[in-house]
């Protein structure tokens, strides 16, 4: 059996838990995820093996012959992994791969410029950062870590606050302060989009897929926009709108998210170390300069 093809140790851990407790619901409770996530992990591995891992037996799920072989391999792997983690728990060395997902402007404006710090700390490690402005579920194995501008309450997902982020309404000098540029319709529920709709009383004239695209569009067209104050520093033609009659900014928070069962994973520890070097205070702005 070739275990190397599996994309996530979390999938094998799910199989081990179902084998131990006998049901998807009970396994979901133990792992702190949903029953659908448990089923998805089991189905994914079953499809990759080409054989079912479990078969229903009354109110329980019982291992097939292939499932028993898989569990034996997974248990041996888990035991070896446990010894390995204990050996490197107090070490800063990381030689594996890390995958992070975050909103695009955090990647372009903060993570990419700090890649030298990553290379200095972990020169042998691989890293992949996906700039994705939509929420990505950590428990689906789509990334090791997510940096998000919202605090989730998803069961099984651990979190700590990284920094603050103020998003305000900006206007071009001598531009059109009535029309504005906003994010895609799929992100209409974000606090800054609701703020701008209330301020302008209309939907955005132009929608762009990232804050940097919004800033470039606003500067080119003279339209107003919503923008993180950190990013606005790079666009001198844009000035922040202030009003005594209406709210013109919202304060958001950036959170470091990872799967709780991976708290001792070297990849998570390496990511924490790097992120805390980039954003040293959870009580300050992302850039450390904004009020």
TrEMBL record:
SUPFAM superfamilies: Periplasmic binding protein-like II, Winged helix' DNA-binding domain. Belongs to the LysR transcriptional regulatory family. This is DNA-binding transcriptional regulator, LysR family. One of its GO terms (molecular function) is DNA-binding transcription factor activity. Keywords: DNA-binding, Transcription, Transcription regulation. It comes from the Bacteria. Residues 1-64 form the HTH lysR-type domain.
């Amino acid at each position: 059996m070739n275990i190397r093809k599996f994309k996530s140790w979390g999938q094998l851990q799910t199989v081990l838990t179902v084998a131990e407790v006998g049901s998807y619901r009970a396994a979901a409770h133990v792992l702190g995820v949903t029953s659908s996530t448990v089923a998805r992990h089991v189905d994914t591995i079953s499809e990759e093996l080409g054989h079912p891992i479990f078969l229903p037996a009354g109110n329980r799920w019982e291992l097939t012959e292939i499932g028993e072989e898989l569990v034996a391999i997974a248990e041996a792997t888990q035991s070896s992994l446990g010894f390995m983690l204990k050996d490197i728990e107090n070490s800063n060395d990381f030689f594996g791969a890390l995958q992070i997902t975050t909103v695009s402007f955090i990647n372009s404006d903060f993570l990419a410029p700090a890649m030298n710090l990553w290379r200095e700390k972990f020169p042998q490690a691989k890293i992949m950062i996906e700039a994705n402005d939509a929420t990505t579920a950590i428990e689906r194995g789509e990334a090791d870590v997510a940096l998000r501008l919202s605090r989730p309450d998803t069961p099984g997902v651990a979190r700590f606050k990284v920094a603050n982020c103020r998003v305000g309404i900006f206007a071009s000098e001598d531009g059109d302060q009535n029309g504005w540029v906003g994010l895609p319709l799929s992100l209409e529920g974000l606090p800054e989009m609701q703020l701008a709709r209330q301020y302008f009383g209309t939907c955005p004239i132009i929608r762009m897929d990232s804050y940097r695209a919004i800033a470039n569009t606003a500067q080119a067209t003279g339209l107003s926009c919503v923008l993180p104050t950190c990013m606005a520093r790079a666009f001198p033609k844009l000035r922040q709108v202030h009003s005594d009659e209406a709210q013109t900014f919202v304060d958001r928070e950036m959170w470091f998210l990872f799967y709780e069962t991976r708290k001792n994973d070297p990849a998570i520890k390496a990511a924490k170390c790097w992120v805390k070097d980039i954003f040293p205070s959870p009580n300050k702005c992302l850039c450390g300069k904004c009020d």
